[in-house]
């Protein structure tokens, strides 16, 4: 009898605590992404969650779900529209399905470097393309995140386009990612991010391409002996919030936007800084890091960038980006 009363009391207290916690957080938002818990992307998302909670006096709580735990890239994009997720990191190439022009920054050799990327991030062009995406979907682009320059990893040196002929290379499941391998005669194989390590290990694919920080935190160097510095794409991510999430947070929308923009800037600088030291780090691990003459690769891709039948942006967008 005595134990039963204690149990009833503990249960009652438990319900009271849960109720109090729920009352504090008027809205709970789900932030989904495909990156590992140890990545800068996840760590900065956790920082942003704490900042939003603090700056809204607990009215908004953000729960962060890493490593494709709420779905792969295509699924979390779809999840914004059905309320399954509220905030995502995603590549512009995946957003291309909903509003093509915003993918322009992810096309091969279209960005000249980090300074050019920052100019684009702060430009009227990016603001207009973000607005175009919002008009198409209702969702809000909160910030542009630097993901890094993508390089090809393989088990032999790749120094010229001919070295990629017939190469079975994993690419993200998005149209823009097919352009570079197709231009050099490779065999692009779309595959979810979470499946790449095992596919390389088992020889399902021969190669993959990603920025140096990603190659490090996904440990692709354990199953690939060469990193070839092709720098074929200067990649970005977008932080996007759903229209339903923005409606639910009400007057706190400005705080949410402020923090997410700070998060975008914070993680971008971190990724750029890590890129600068990783060539030496990989060489210390015994990986062959090969310098590549990019000009022949650029020449192979260049005609496609201005063929308006092959790209989702307009010539005006291309010219404005190049003029930055």
Strand-helix topology:
Layout: H1 2-24, E1 27-32, H2 40-55, E2 60-65, H3 73-82, E3 87-90, H4 92-95, H5 114-121, H6 124-137, E4 140-154, E5 168-171, H7 179-183, E6 187-190, H8 196-202, E7 207-210, H9 212-217, E8 226-241, H10 243-249, H11 253-284, E9 288-291, H12 295-305, H13 315-323
Parallel strand pairs: 1-2, 1-3, 5-6, 5-7, 8-9
Antiparallel strand pairs: 3-8, 4-7, 4-8
Helix pairs in contact: 2-11
Description:
- It comes from Sedimentitalea xiamensis.
- InterPro entries: DctP_fam, TRAP_DctP, TRAP_DctP_sf.
- It is found in: Periplasm.
- Belongs to the bacterial solute-binding protein 7 family.
- α2 (40-55) links the parallel β1 and β2.
- This protein has a single domain (25-323), classed as D-Maltodextrin-Binding Protein, domain 2 (3-Layer(aba) Sandwich).
- The N and C termini lie far apart (77 Å).
- With 324 residues, it is of the alpha/beta class.
- 47% of the residues lie in helices and 19% in strands.
- Strands 1, 2, 3, 4, 5, 6, 7, 8 and 9 form a nine-stranded mixed beta sheet that branches.
What summary fits the major beta sheet? Answer: 9 strands, mixed
Could you tell me how far the N terminus lies from the C terminus, measured between alpha carbons in angstroms? 77 Å
What's the total helix number? 13
Helix vs. strand class: alpha/beta
* Average of the residue pLDDT scores: 92
Radius of gyration: 22 Å
The CATH topology name reads D-Maltodextrin-Binding Protein, domain 2
Question: What order do the helices and strands follow?
Answer: HEHEHEHHHEEHEHEHEHHEHH
CATH class: Alpha Beta
Q: What would CATH call the homologous superfamily?
A: Bacterial extracellular solute-binding protein, family 7
- CATH architecture field: 3-Layer(aba) Sandwich
Task: Please tell me what the overall shape is.
Answer: globular
Q: What proportion of the residues is helical, as a percent range? A: 40-55%
Strand content: 15-25%
Number of strands: 9
């Amino acid at each position: 009898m005595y134990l039963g009363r204690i149990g009833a009391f503990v249960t009652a207290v438990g319900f009271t605590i849960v109720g109090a916690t729920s009352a504090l957080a008027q809205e709970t938002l789900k932030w989904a992404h495909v990156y590992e818990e140890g990545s800068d992307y996840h760590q900065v998302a956790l920082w942003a969650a704490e900042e939003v909670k603090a700056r809204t006096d607990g009215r908004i709580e953000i729960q962060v779900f890493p490593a494709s735990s709420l779905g792969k890239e295509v699924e979390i994009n779809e999840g914004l529209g059905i309320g399954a997720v509220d905030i995502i990191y995603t590549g512009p190439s995946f957003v291309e399905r909903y509003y093509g022009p915003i993918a322009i920054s992810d096309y091969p050799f279209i960005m000249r470097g980090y300074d050019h990327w920052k100019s684009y991030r702060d430009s009227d062009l990016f603001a207009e393309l973000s607005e175009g995406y919002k008009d198409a979907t209702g969702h809000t682009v909160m910030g542009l995140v630097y993901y890094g320059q993508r390089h090809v990893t393989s088990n032999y040196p790749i120094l010229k386009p001919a070295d990629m002929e017939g190469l079975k290379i994993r690419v993200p499941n998005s149209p823009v990612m097919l352009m570079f391998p197709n231009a050099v005669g490779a065999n692009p194989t779309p595959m979810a991010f979470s499946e790449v390590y095992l596919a390389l290990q088992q020889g399902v694919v021969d190669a993959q391409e990603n920025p140096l920080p990603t190659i490090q935190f996904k440990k692709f160097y354990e199953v690939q002996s060469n990193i070839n510095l092709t720098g074929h794409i200067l990649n970005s991510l977008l932080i996007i919030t759903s229209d339903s999430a923005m409606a639910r947070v009400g007057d706190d929308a400005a705080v949410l936007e402020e923090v997410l923009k700070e998060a975008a800037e914070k993680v971008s600088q971190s990724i750029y800084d890590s890129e600068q030291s990783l060539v030496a780090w990989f060489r210390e691990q015994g990986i062959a890091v090969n310098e590549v003459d990019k000009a022949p690769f650029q020449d192979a891709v260049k005609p496609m960038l201005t063929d308006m039948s092959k790209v989702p942006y307009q010539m005006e967008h291309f010219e404005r980006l190049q003029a930055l």
